[in-house]
């Protein structure tokens, strides 16, 4: 695998948004499929060591993806992504949210809007995701919740782990 | 506030705007006494925000590494058949 796949992660506090850019060593159609088909999403979406399990997926405007990210000891974090606009294979917009097992969105939690776009970058594909919150208050709620729900502690040392993996990958 | 703004090459009103954003996000607190406004860092909130952003970054980095693996597998299958 090519080591120098571009990865950018930026926080724009003024716009209450997070911008993630990442290159993939595959064509746009395949990268798009991986983002929009349940059987493929289930194979990558949750960060390690969690796994993804889709309960419902209807990839169309007004449809939604209801999935859980599951820890090795079986704890499930349920999320829901409501699709607002879809332009195959250029991009989609969706509303992210925390929910329960039945898919009922937690009304106390802010929802962020995801704008995901796919562009050709020579033989690679660049995926840009903008995660936008409505206000600084909403960002703060997400921070408070994120530090409380246990997922953060699962992920806490992931950065170090990734650095270690990255260092190993570069040596190969 | 003037003292705080001094090292920055920025007009005071622009500086105040940035400070306002930091205050709304809970990263700093300010208190006005007469004509003087004093800012204090909210260390705890600042650390919490930094940690959350680091968690978010780690989440995206990890899921995308998974996707690299899946894409490699899928393109490998294409070439195989």
What does this entry look like structurally?
The complex is a heterodimer of chains A (172) and B (81). Chain A has 172 residues and is an alpha+beta fold. Chain A has a single domain, classed as START domain (Alpha-D-Glucose-1,6-Bisphosphate, Chain A, domain 4, 2-Layer Sandwich), CATH 3.30.530.20. Helix content of chain A is 26%, strand content 38%. An eight-stranded antiparallel β-sheet of chain A has the order 1-2-8-7-6-5-4-3. In chain A, strand 5 and strand 6 form a beta hairpin. The longest helix of chain A has 14 residues, at 158-171. With 81 residues, chain B is of the alpha+beta class. Chain B has a single domain, classed as Winged helix-like DNA-binding domain superfamily/Winged helix DNA-binding domain (Arc Repressor Mutant, subunit A). Helix content of chain B is 68%, strand content 15%. Chain B has three helices and two strands. Chain B has helices at 2-5, 12-24, 43-80; strands spanning 28-33, 36-41. Chain B has a two-stranded antiparallel sheet. In chain B, a hairpin with a 2-residue loop joins strand 1 and strand 2. Chain B is elongated, with a radius of gyration of 23 Å. The N and C termini of chain B lie far apart (68 Å). The model of chain B has no long low-confidence stretch (mean pLDDT 85). At the A-B interface, strand 1, strand 2, helix 1, helix 3 and helix 4 of A face helix 2 and helix 3 of B.
Name its key features:
heterodimer; A: alpha+beta; Alpha-D-Glucose-1,6-Bisphosphate, Chain A, domain 4; eight-stranded antiparallel β-sheet; 26% helix; globular; B: 81 residues; alpha+beta; two-stranded antiparallel sheet; 2 strands; 68% helix
DSSP E strands of chain B, number: 2
Mean pLDDT of chain B: 85
The Cα radius of gyration of chain A reads: 16 Å
By secondary-structure content and strand pairing, the structural class of chain B works out as: alpha+beta
Q: Look at the structure and name the CATH superfamily of chain A.
A: START domain
- Overall CATH architecture of chain A: 2-Layer Sandwich
- Overall mean pLDDT score of chain A? 87
**CATH first level of chain B:** Mainly Alpha
User: Biggest interface in this structure?
Assistant: A-B, 41 and 31 residues
> Which CATH class of chain A applies here?
Alpha Beta
Number of separate helices of chain B: 3
CATH architecture of chain B: Orthogonal Bundle
Name the helix and strand elements of chain A from N-terminus to C-terminus, one letter apiece: EEHHEEEEEEHHH
CATH superfamily of chain B: Winged helix-like DNA-binding domain superfamily/Winged helix DNA-binding domain
